[in-house]
């Protein structure tokens, strides 16, 4: 009996605790969807992409805050807002640092309120003071609210985005559905239409701020590189970019049309969209552009002088669409990594206990 107790269970403890180390690893990879194919195909967003998005998002917030301030002070329906390439760069770098701060929230696991309401907002406001965007008590209060938004919404949403670095999947192929009607393997899916709309809207802000800042530098020798746009531009660029993105997916993947065959359709739609929005906004004295002083303009709302710019933006739109095809929306990657880390520690403790029993 004693020999049976010594010899028999010695070959079984690994089974009792979930199998050998290799078997546990294989099962954990299969359950988490991080096996050979998934681990090589999906990964965190590259640093350059995060910097790009941080700068664009920061410019969008600058425009929104300054346009709302102008509306409250001057009741201007044009909703003109301001930012600059300098602020874009500072937003990108500061939020790259805040990304590291947000990753430390696991150290406050027992006190999450302290992290979200005190620690992170304090670091965020300190960086904004260094940049020069916080100078009054009102701005301090506004940026405290923004810090809560970043800690509770922004970083959490960004952590769900993963990047496919090898090749863009076919957007026309339907994702397989389960019997319940949901997506199978729901760990990763394409970006929703609302997210793409928000992306193109913010990118429109960035485009106009960069263009007007360069224009002011050349025409007015403004070395501060101050650029401006209108809050209405978010809706214009967001909807226009979304439609052009749909056109690209249909004409390129369904029809097989090349770039130069798609380009006239893009440009015609852009001019039609700009004219339509201009006519509507003029009824409310909210149109922020006037091309009456340019030659060959039509109603002061569109001009062929900007044709090279629209052509370049149309070509760049295809690049953005291809990049967005490589981005997948997944579960909270931070929480998954944290759970995997805890599971690894538990397995290591189990193995140590088994080694102690064997000895």
From TrEMBL:
Entry GO CC: membrane
Keyword Membrane part of the UniProt annotation: yes
Residue ranges crossing the lipid bilayer per the database entry: 113-131, 137-154, 197-218, 230-251, 263-284, 296-316
Basic and acidic residues bias spans: 1-10, 21-31
Membrane disposition: Multi-pass membrane protein
Subcellular compartments: Membrane
Record flagged with keyword Transmembrane: yes
Highest taxon of the lineage: Eukaryota
PANTHER family in the record: TRANSMEMBRANE PROTEIN 229 FAMILY MEMBER, TRANSMEMBRANE PROTEIN 229A
UniProt protein name: Transmembrane protein 229A
Organism this protein belongs to: Betta splendens (Siamese fighting fish)
Gene: tmem229a
